[in-house]
Prior knowledge:
The chain is built from 10 helices and 12 strands. By secondary structure, it is α/β, with parallel strands linked by helices. A 5-stranded parallel beta sheet has the order 5-2-1-9-10, with helices on both faces. A hairpin with a 2-residue loop joins strand 3 (46-48) and strand 4.
Amino acid sequence: MIIENMSNDFYLILAGGVGAAKFIEGLANVVRPESLKIIVNTGDDIELFGLRICPDLDIITYTLANLVDKEKGWGFIDESFNCLSILKKYYDTGWFNAGDKDLATHIYRTDLFKQGYTKAEITKKICEIFKVKSEIIPMCNESFETHLKTPIGTMPFEEYFIKYQCKPNVISFDFKGSDKANPVEGVLNYINEAKKIIICPSNPIVSIGTILRVKRIKKSLIKVKNKVYAISPIIKGTTVKGPADKFMKGEFRP
C-alpha cells in the first residue's frame, strides 16, 4: 500500500549498515521505491584480495533487490563460500566472509574502477543490473576510509567489526580522505529539494558521522533542519546491534 502519491516528491535518506537496510526495506513497502534517494556511507570501504569492496552500498543494494540473506543481514541469499575457502590459503584476511556471489560484485566493481568509472557511476550500473528502483548514491566518489586506533593497533572499521567483533577499546578515529571528500553531483540539490530527509538508525560515528564529514553536507542539512528527521539506533542507552553505544560513551562526535 502506498502512503501517498510521491510522483513529484522524494525522500532523501542518509544510511549505513544493516539497520539502515532494514529500515529502508520497510519504507520501500509503504512509499514508492522510486521516491527514495539514498546517500550511503562509504567509510567502511576496504580493499581485500585486490578487490574494491563497498559493504554498505552492497547491503542496501542487495536488500532492495530482495536478494539479501535476511538471517545474516548481509550478503546474498543461498550463498556459497568455495572461493573464500581457497583465498584463506593465500591471504591472512579470511575473516572477511565474502561469498561467491558477493565476490562477483567486487570483481565487477574493481574492473569498472580500472576502466575509469566513478563510484557513483558503478553504483548506478549495479543497481540497474539488479533492478533496484530507488536511487542509491555513495556519499562521495573519493577514497574515504574509517580507521580505528585501539590498544592492539590501528585497523580499518571492517576489520575491527568483523575480525575483532568490536571488542578492543577505541582510542581514536582516523577518517582517512575526509579532507578531500566532496558530495556526489546532485546531492546538495537533493538536500534542498527533498520533501523530507530521514537519517536512518545507523551508527552515529562511523555511518552517519562519516557522511556528515563530506564537505558541505552537514552545513546544507542544518539549513533545512526543519525537514530533517533522525531515528536513533540507541534505546535506553543500548544499541539494538553494533558498537554505537560503545562509541558514543567516549568523546567521539561527528
